[in-house]
Amino acid sequence: MALPSRAGSPNASGAKPAVASIIRTIPEGDEDSAPHWSRLIPAWIVSGVIHVVLLSLFLLVTVTGSAATAEMDFTTIVGNVQDDAKDPLFGVQEEGTDPTQEVNYNVPVIAEVSVPGPPATQAPGILNNPNDNPPQSMPAPDGFKQGQFGGINDPNQIGRGGLSGFEGGYIGGVKGLPGGFPGTGGSTRQQLLHYNGGNTRSEACVARGLNWLARHQRPNGSWGLHDFHTAHNCNCKGQANRPNDMAATGMALLPFLGAGETHRGVGTSKLYAKPVEYALGWIVKQQGVDGQLGDGYSHPIATIALCEAYGLTADPKLKGPAQRAIDAIVNWQAANGGFRYSPKQQGDLSVSGWHIQALKSGQMAGLHVPNQTFQGIHNFLDAVSTADQSGLGYTGPQATPRMTSVGLLCREYLGWGPRHPAIAKGTETLNKMPPSASLKDMYYYYYATQSMFHGTDEKGWATWNDKMRDLLIDTQDMGNNPDARDQKGSWSAEGDAFGPQMGRLGVTSLALLTLEVYYRRLPLYNRQLGAAKEEALKR
User: In 470-508, which positions are buried (b, 16+ CB within 10 angstroms) versus exposed (e)?
Assistant: First the structure.
């Protein structure tokens, strides 16, 4: 029997045969043998109906969720930081970047034209790069995928960002605002580090210190000054004599942010994204309806962390909590313009120093701070200053080096530059009490280093920095004690002036912030540091 020819093709005689219709008949009363209704409906119709139903459910959930404020998303974090941590975070001691490897954006930070190219897709530091990308030891500069400091979400539009707004510019201000957040990832951090006097040894200290902090974080994202050693049952010593979890969490979180580590990750590195995310979530959960985050010390420290996290990421979920915390400080201010342990209490300079830092962090992040608040601070600083304004005291003009270091930084943040006679004379006071192994006062070093960084010339800063940087490098615990190997990466609180109050966790946090001074904030005043950079690179 001959096979029928394909429909539509000529047969042997050349004529096209008729195409037979195929009709399936169903015997009457045999419903079970009938085809299912879904077989009679084209598949694309079924698919379309399913997608419409799913889309409707998605929109219903989205609309319902939008009734809550955006920032409340931070209070719904589930799980704990240890569940998300990878083994390298808690086992391998990071030693910092490889000083022998060139970066892929190795140009000065301050230049007439400086437009980065698209970031390389190859992971940093990989040898024998199959994609033939430029060698790199750091991710691309901050801004890519985040919309800050010249970066923009569309890689084809790199370099076309505006001067303000979230896309391609600093939040609410101009790019690279003096004293602002420079975007401390990638080559930006590398350049600022060497330009301002840091080196690979100081960065290795920062890497070890961040690892130590991460290993001592509680499962819920917080830290403790008095019981940090219980997080992983470690053998660390140096617990504070009283609890203050909010202050501890804020202090421990700040060094991560100072190094550019955010909950969104930095470039291709997200090593500490989860610890930062859980810490921020814990802080927001504790915030009261009045915006407060604890007492006179813990509130401003935690506020600085919220403001810096918002300033670095422009995450809208953080804007509400950060602004409420700033508003609480505005309402906290006493009649004399200062701040103390509780709202409206006549201020002292120690507590006021943290509040003033928080207000400036909020302002740099684009949040609202009333001008009259700063005017009140000016009045308070005048009241606790000596006649020539170069020295400052705790609650009056009885000046001490420690309070002078706090007051000078506050003055610099409020507009006094290195040429102001009081700043120049005040730094002379600090130079009479330079960093030394015999002087254990991390609180003083934290403030004095920032004061010198913003308020001295090239020579003055280099003189102070060489001593401060090397002292911290030499005194970091390297885990050589077999009975306390878990202390590797931290600094001892023993013998420190505020050791009993801060403990090992507080002292370590301030030491890290001091080593991050090179890139945590842009200098308030331009300073040529080529010589310092070259000297640092030789170390």
Answer: ebbeeebbebeeeebebbbbbbbbeebebbebbbbbbbb
pLDDT in tens, 448-506: 999 999 999 889 999 999 999 999 999 999 999 988 899 999 999 999 999 999 999 99
What is the distance between the alpha carbons of residues 130 and 33, in angstroms, rounded to a whole number? Answer: 60
* Cα–Cα distance measured from residue 194 to residue 323, given in angstroms and rounded to the nearest whole number: 34
**Residue type for position 535:** E
Under DSSP, is residue 420 helix (H, G, I), strand (E, B) or coil? coil
DSSP letters for 124-151: TT-SS-TT-PPP-SSPPPEEEET--TT-
Residue 380, phi then psi, degrees to nearest 5:
-65, -45
d(CA 149, CA 167): 9
List, in order, residues 6 or more apart from 258 with CB less than 8 Å away. Answer: 184, 308, 512, 513, 516, 519, 520
Q: Quick one: how far is CA 3 from the chain centroid?
A: 76
Q: Is 314 exposed, middle or buried (0-12, 13-18, 19+ CB in 10 A)?
A: buried
Residues 6+ apart with CB under 8 A from 230: 224
Q: Are 216 and 229 in contact, with CB atoms under 8 Å apart?
A: yes
Residues of the chain with pLDDT under 70: 1-187, 266-269, 524-539
Q: Note the pLDDT of residue 264.
A: 85
Instruction: Calculate the CA dihedral of residues 470, 96, 264, 172 and round it to 10 degrees.
Output: 40
The token duo for 215 is 């290993």
Residue ranges in 34-129 assigned as alpha helix (H): 43-65, 81-84, 87-91
Nearest-angstrom CA–CA distance, 301 and 310: 15
Helices 421-431 and 401-413, interaxial angle, to 10°? 140
Residue type, 164: S
Rg (CA), the chain: 30
| Sign of the CA dihedral with 82 first, then 87, 93, and 97 last | negative
The DSSP bridge partners found for residue 385 are: 392
Domains and CATH numbers, the chain: 81-108+135-141+183-538 (1.50.10.20)
Q: What distances in angstroms separate CA 493 from CA 211, 232, 241, 242, 480, one per listed residue?
A: 18, 20, 12, 14, 17
Helices (H) and strands (E) in the chain, counts: 18, 1
Lookup: tokens for 18: 């008729």
Helix (H) or strand (E) segment spanning residue 258: helix 245-258
Q: Is 284 exposed, middle or buried (0-12, 13-18, 19+ CB in 10 A)?
A: buried
pTM of the model: 0.71
Distance between start and end Cα atoms, the chain? 94
In 3D, which of 401, 502, 479 has the Cα closest to residue 444?
Answer: 401
Cα-flanking dihedrals φ and ψ of residue 292, to 5°?
Answer: -75, 150
pLDDT tens for residues 129-167? Answer: 444 444 333 333 433 334 333 333 444 443 433 333 333
**Separation CA 119–CA 461 (nearest Å):** 34
